[in-house]
Amino acid sequence: MYKKSLSLMLIAFLFQMVCVSSASAVVRTNEETLRVTKMKERIGVIHLEKKRVTITRRDGTKLKARVSEVKEDSFVMTDEKTGAASEVRYDDVVQVKTKSNGLAISTKFLIGAGIVAAVVVVVLIVKPLGKSPFPKCNADRSNAPCDNSR
């Protein structure tokens, strides 16, 4: 009786160890879940902006294409040249890069407004003086001193 109950307990213990270790391998950590959530948001924004993207997978391969479809657990990237579509899981992506297209329209507008403001300030300061800020010396090629009273 003692041997039978001991062997049943040992079998139950081994069974429990196998089940617990396999279940813990499936559970994601909070950091991994947070990373996948951020990746979903970033890919969603890139999909809406219709930008080209370069992703790096866990195995080191890189894929350059546009995001054509966004799903719950994955997204589809389509190459423009070949038309080949490939499905990528969010948890398989390590890095996402997009190429910026230069300055934003608002930045260009602010730079232009700054230039216009600078021109207006210069005109308003120089114009009331009534004379050129640059003297007209030696206009007749004589050695006479400059006369800035004109």
Give a summary of the structure in a few sentences.
This protein is α+β, with helices and mostly antiparallel strands. The protein has helices spanning 2-26, 30-49, 105-129, and strands at 52-57, 62-70, 74-78, 85-89, 93-98. The chain is built from three helices and five strands; from the N terminus they run ααβββββα.
Describe the structure.
There is one protein chain. The protein is an alpha+beta fold. Among the domains are: 30-98, SH3 type barrels (Roll), CATH 2.30.30.100; 101-131. Helix content is 47%, strand content 21%. A 5-stranded antiparallel β-sheet has the order 4-3-2-1-5. Strand 1 and strand 2 form a beta hairpin. It starts with a helix and ends in a 21-residue tail after the last helix. The mean pLDDT is 76.
Low-confidence stretches: none
Question: What is the rounded distance between the termini?
Answer: 125 Å
Binned, the helix content reads: 40-55%
Shape: elongated
Topology of this structure?
Elements: H1 2-26, H2 30-49, E1 52-57, E2 62-70, E3 74-78, E4 85-89, E5 93-98, H3 105-129
Antiparallel strand pairs: 1-2, 1-5, 2-3, 3-4
